[in-house]
Amino acid sequence: MSPRSVVVTGASTGIGRATVLELVSAGFQLFATVRREADAEGLRRQFPEVVTPLIMDLLDEDSVRAAGEVVRADGPLFGLVNNAGAGFPGPLEILPIEVFRRQLEVNLTAQLLVTQVMLPALRRSAEGVGDARIIMIGSIGGRIAGPMLGAYSAAKHGLVGLSGSLRAELAPSKIKVVLIEPGAIATPIWDRSRATGDGLQSADPKAWARYADQLKAVRQMAQRGATSGLDPAVPAKIILAALQNGNPAPRQVIGREAKLMAAMVRVLPFRAVYRVSRARR
Asked: What is the pTM of this model?
């Protein structure tokens, strides 16, 4: 039997790169999407013959469709790991609406686009061997929303609904949909998010000053995530298990703090959750 093929998006750093390492070690044949040619070349050097890099930007529909054409031409696709994403922090009152749209485009709309272009190849696997998998990388931010991350939480809450509907629709086709919901992971997304927020503030410092304390708290959270979040290898191993297990759990929360928050949302009344999550000043 030839190695099963899997697409991993956002494979240059963080969870995506760790997932590539994990799946290669397990014997999968991979397509790995990156935005820069330098990252693609690095993958070619490190994983010759087993990883095919694809240049793809979630904000460039043509590049997503071109990646889909390459994958479909290769044959059946066993798995799709929708990992690529971004975070754009800021108070919803003054967050530029184009930034909000971009957040939804990257973390929600583009996730569906990638899925759509890969589904013909996934169906070929499901029809041939009776199995195919879509792994969505969500966030604990899809269960609980706090200050300064409204756009991100809106996208991740949307991804919960998107994944649920896909799971229901694709069940008769023997394509499983799994939503992975990590807490803080030590990846470069924290540094990029902090830089994005700082850049937005420079456009209207007076308006943003009203949220100075909340922004400071989010920066501190981002710093903790970058330095003490879970190693990306942890979710990568769970992604591998979701591809290998015969009947993976449809939603999986990762990390002690994330599991505590998920339990809190599940068992506490809304007012109690709100007292924990709301801004203090």
From this structure: 0.92
